[in-house]
Amino acid sequence: MLGIHSPETSSEAEAQNVRDNVKETGLKFPILIDNGKATWNSWGNSMWPAVYLIDKKGRIRYWWFGELNWKEAGGQKLLEQRIGELLEEPSD
Question: Is this model's pTM higher than 0.70 or not?
Answer without folding.
Answer: yes
